[in-house]
Amino acid sequence: MFFLCVSLSFTALEVECLSSDGQALLSLLSAADPYYKKSSPVLSSWNPSNPTPCSWQGITCSPQERVISLSIPDTFLNLSSLPSDLSSLSSLQLLNLSSTNISGSIPPSFGSLTQLRLLDLSSNSLSGPIPSELGKLTLLQFLFLNSNRLTGAIPQQLANLSSLPLPPR
After folding, report:
1. DSSP class per residue in 1-44
2. Span of the secretion signal (predicted)?
3. pTM of the predicted model, to two decimals?
4. Which of 77, 143, 145, 149 has the greatest number of C-beta atoms within 10 Å?
5. pLDDT at 165
């Protein structure tokens, strides 16, 4: 695991390190609307001086302090795109960003979130095609992309996801 270390004290040598998972989550925070990240009780709890993001609202960690859930539905982010840095959350099992006012496309790099069991990006303004790379999410059981402006056909690769219940044809 990689760490970013920052000196936080001028009088004593005190170093705090935020885990790589925390750094990935900060990419979401830095892309969020400045006004809403200050006024949001969820986002204002995201303190980069913590060594891990495990105490942040909307975040659940494993006993090894790896992020396994990012669930902040109905939190106004006002993002023009989803940060691809979220793809580095290699232990992530649940990603719920429904109704968070996200536009842009779904990053193909989300196909590298191979531990993902639930992906909910519903009720946003996402556009463009559904990335075929999501077909690599072999553990995916729930996929919610409704109420967006997605275009094109559902990628054939999603039909190979045996854990994802698909409606009969």
Report:
1. --EEEEE--SSS--EEEEEHHHHHHHHHHHHS-HHHHHH-TTGG
2. 1-17
3. 0.88
4. 77
5. 79
Q: What integer pLDDT is reported at residue 3 of this predicted model? A: 40
Are 91 and 70 spatial neighbours (Cβ–Cβ below 8 Å)?
Answer: no
pLDDT of 134 reads: 97
The overall longest dimension of the chain from CA atoms, in Å, is 68
Sheet-wide strand order for 125-128: 103-104, 125-128, 149-150
Q: Are strands 3-7 and 15-19 parallel, antiparallel or unpaired?
A: antiparallel
CA dist., res. 156 & res. 15, Å (int): 49
Both tokens of residue 14? 């005190």
pLDDT at residue 91, rounded to an integer = 98
Enumerate the domain spans of the chain.
3-160
For 165, residues 6+ apart whose C-beta sits below 8 A from its C-beta are: 141
Please give the structure tokens belonging to residue 32: 């969020």
Beta bridge partners of 6: 16
